[in-house]
Amino acid sequence: MRPAEPLPLLAIGASPRRGGNTDVMLKWIAEGATAAGQPMAVVQLRDVVVRPCIGCERCRRDKRCTGHGDGMQLLYPLIEAARGLVLASPTHSYNVTAWMKAFIDRLYCYYDFSDHRPRRWSSRLGGQGRRALVCTVAEQPEIDDIGFTLEAMAKPLTSLGYRVMDQLAAQPFFDLGSVRQDPLLAERLRAAGALLARAVTDDTQDV
Q1: What is the CATH number of domain 9-206?
Q2: pLDDT at 18
Q3: Neighbours of 183 (CB within 10 A)
Q4: Residue 4: predicted pLDDT
Q5: Are 18 and 90 in contact (CB under 8 A)?
Q6: Which of 49, 72, 167, 179 is the most exposed place for a label (fewest CB within 10 A)?
Q7: Strand ranges in 72-113 using DSSP code E only, listed in sequence order
Q8: Cis peptide before 52 (omega within 30 of 0)
Q9: Residue 104: enclosing H or E segment and its boundaries?
Q10: Model confidence over 17-41: pLDDT tens digits?
Q11: What pLDDT, on a 0 to 100 scale, did the predictor assign at position 207?
């Protein structure tokens, strides 16, 4: 992976299928953001080596992840620079993909902890007006069939200090790129991207 340019908006895709439904959804969100005046960097985790957290706890001392020298080291500057973040993962076994789970766990390095148990914590990404969207796609038609996927992305982001503006689910789609059959979904995702872009722009102007 070549280092991407830090931008106000960053999207992280966690689908193993190149050109699949998750990719199309991210493309629509990025189109909406661009139309609203904010370009978005899109990173696909299938193109990046992100190893799982090993629980070494060195990041508590070093204030960054020093347990792995992998692709996350390229992503951290992008995360810090972006005021808006999009996480997108297809539903695998009622949850996010293993790639998305590894990415989220590696954000642990942004937490600070007190010295007393039970240890209080805070996020170094908090208090900065950060915004986020999360989205998923699932083959089955019932909302229960996405299981914990949206929550598994939204709850960690909230803890890190993001305001999750929307949680978007596309169903029922499986065949490669089949979400293109739903123009209303495309409209909704472009609108969500535009809303995120405007929120980030407004926050920047308020500073």
Answers
A1: 3.40.50.360
A2: 96
A3: 8
A4: 66
A5: no
A6: 49
A7: 84-88, 111-113
A8: no
A9: helix 98-105
A10: 999 999 999 999 999 999 999 999 9
A11: 39
What is the rounded distance in angstroms from the CA atom of residue 83 to the CA atom of residue 198? Answer: 11
CA-based nearest residue to 14, from 48, 44, 50, 47: 44
DSSP β-ladder status, 9-13 and 131-137: unpaired
**Mean of all residue pLDDT scores within the chain:** 93
What phi, psi does 151 have (nearest 5°)? -65, -35
Q: In this structure, are residues 102 and 14 in contact, taking their beta carbons and an 8 Å threshold?
A: no
Residues 116, 113: Cα–Cα separation, whole Å: 9
Residue 152 exposure: Cα atoms within 13 Å on the Cβ side:
23
Angle made by CA atoms 28, 33, 35, in degrees to the nearest 5? 95
| b/e map 126-147, b = 16+ CB within 10 Å | eeebbbbbbbbbbeeeeeeebb
Which pLDDT belongs to residue 1?
54
**For residues 137 and 143, what is the distance between their CA atoms, to the nearest angstrom?**
11
Q: Which two tokens stand for residue 32?
A: 């909406």
What is the residue extent of each domain of the chain? 9-206
Distance CA(18)–CA(20), nearest Å, equals: 5
Structure tokens at 100: 């998305």
pLDDT (tens digit, 9 = 90+) per residue, 80-139?
A: 999 999 999 999 999 999 999 999 999 999 999 888 777 788 999 999 999 999 999 999
